[in-house]
Design a protein that fits this description.
By secondary structure, the protein is of the alpha+beta class. Helix content is about 35%, strand content about 35%. It is built from five helices and ten strands, in the order ααααβββαβββββββ.
């Protein structure tokens, strides 16, 4: 029985390879967007914000799929539009979206999305549903930091972790409060090799 509000527990179970896959997928997608704009600036400039975000989503999921399949164990991919999801072990189900103001995400309100966005009661056989992706600068039309978030309902963000790549190959996962929440305090996770999560914080070990 897992409390999805407990980010320490969730992050420990999901594991470092998944963090790396998400962070690298966003970095690759940012590079894809830069390459597209350099190669065909005339066509890129024509796109609406909705159009460019659809293009970005296609590239992001392609990168996510490649990296999860290559580096994360016990992965299954569901890529049958409109449902594009990654399953890690029998516990985690991930979708990938841009995070807007207050870290809210948008989607057509289908029954499948309504089911996904609400967490199972912990006393039931659980499936932890998370959303990876990136912060989007709508004014500049730029991909911001990679993020991983948990929510229980479309407007109830439980926690958000920002994945920031630093020089030297180290990636730092930092809690980012978005909306007031009665949930537990969030860990700061830094790793450059092995991941250790203990007592509400996470530390990198060599």
């Amino acid at each position: 029985m897992i409390d999805v509000r407990n980010s320490d527990e969730v992050l420990s179970l999901l594991g470092q390879p998944s963090f790396e896959a998400i962070g690298q997928s966003v970095a690759r997608t940012r590079d894809d967007l830069d390459e597209y704009r350099r190669a065909v600036p005339r066509l890129a400039a024509r796109q609406t914000q909705r159009g460019i975000l659809n293009w970005i989503h296609d590239q992001l999921f392609a990168n996510v799929r490649d990296l999860f399949e290559a580096h994360v164990s016990s992965v299954q991919v569901r890529d049958v539009e409109p449902r594009r999801e990654i399953y890690v072990t029998d516990l985690f189900r991930l979708r990938f979206k841009k995070h807007g103001p207050a870290d809210l995400v948008s989607s057509y309100p289908t029954e499948a999305f309504k089911d996904f966005i609400v967490q199972d009661p912990p006393q039931l056989l659980q499936e932890i549903r998370l959303i990876g992706g990136f912060r989007w600068d709508a004014e500049a039309r730029l991909i911001g930091p990679a993020v991983l978030s948990a929510r229980d309902g479309n407007h109830n963000v439980l926690w958000v972790i920002e994945l920031v790549a630093e020089t030297g190959g180290t990636t730092v996962l930092t809690p980012v409060p978005s909306t007031p929440s009665p949930g537990p305090s969030l860990p700061v996770v830094a790793f450059d090799g092995k991941l250790l999560i203990k007592g509400g914080t996470a530390k990198a070990t060599s």
